[in-house]
Design the sequence.
């Protein structure tokens, strides 16, 4: 069933009632516009984009890809390890709705069926095995140039609703505008430099995530949540904390075990 972009959400049984969806949309757009700060963290910003997609849209996972001008498309943020692996496969195979949306500068809706489509057979097989049933890819355009793509994956029947497709377009536009306005803080910085910083940050974060996964014996999603929570709690840039962890200058304690966490709650 289609869900209106401005409908209210029911109260949660596991916590306080959520704000109506219209209020959450407004809060998300304000948050994405708040980039005119000197310590702007592009990596953290792009993960916030993915999180807002997860909160506002009827999807199972989200990812953000970017490219510097005339450079290759790269994955910079994802909501889970599952979708990260699918999107990396798509980039490596150079086929799929997200790859196509970027190169054709147009939104792509794609339903993943048991029999792979002749257009993207390898992508369909890989995404289907991961449990996804459809994908909506919305290009991120800046001054008439496509600089990335917002990738939305569903794990339930039916494609994304029209209301959610329109909201995805708004989130993609807000992402582009925010990246542009942040570069105006310093006239010597360029869009290329800003995007390159985001791509470089992703490499450091993946290294730190792998380090924490090996050190604590956890899964990649848990390791990333630990990394991001520590950065936000201590007001650190995500990429700076990642570098310190890899260099050994910062050591994070292991996440609480499920047994201990349940006993303390």
Sequence:
């Amino acid at each position: 069933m289609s869900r209106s972009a401005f409908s209210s959400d029911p109260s949660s049984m596991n916590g306080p009632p959520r704000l109506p969806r219209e209020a959450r949309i407004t809060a998300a757009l304000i948050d994405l516009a708040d980039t005119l700060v000197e310590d702007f963290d592009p990596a953290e910003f792009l993960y916030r984009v993915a999180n807002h997609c997860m909160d506002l849209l009827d999807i199972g996972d989200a990812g953000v890809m970017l490219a510097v001008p005339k450079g290759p498309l790269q994955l910079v943020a994802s909501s889970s390890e599952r979708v990260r692996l699918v999107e990396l496969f798509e980039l490596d195979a150079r086929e799929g709705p997200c790859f196509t949306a970027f190169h054709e500068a147009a939104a792509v809706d794609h339903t993943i069926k048991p029999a792979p489509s002749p257009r993207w057979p390898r992508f369909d097989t890989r995404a289907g095995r991961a449990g996804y049933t459809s994908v909506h890819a919305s290009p991120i355009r800046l001054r008439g140039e496509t600089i990335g793509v917002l990738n939305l994956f569903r794990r339930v029947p039916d494609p994304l609703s029209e209301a959610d497709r329109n909201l995805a377009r708004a989130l993609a536009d807000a992402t582009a505008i925010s990246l542009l306005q942040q570069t105006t803080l310093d006239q010597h910085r360029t869009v290329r430099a800003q995007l390159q910083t985001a791509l470089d940050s992703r490499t450091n974060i993946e290294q730190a995530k792998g380090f924490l996964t090996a050190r604590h014996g956890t899964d990649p999603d848990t390791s990333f949540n630990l990394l991001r929570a520590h950065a936000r709690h201590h007001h650190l840039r995500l990429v700076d904390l990642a570098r310190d962890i890899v260099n050994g200058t910062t050591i994070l304690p292991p996440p609480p075990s499920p047994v201990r966490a349940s006993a303390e709650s």
Residues 1-15, 259-265 have pLDDT under 50 and may be disordered. The longest strand covers residues 145-154. Residues 201-256 form a domain with the Arc Repressor Mutant, subunit A fold (CATH 1.10.10).
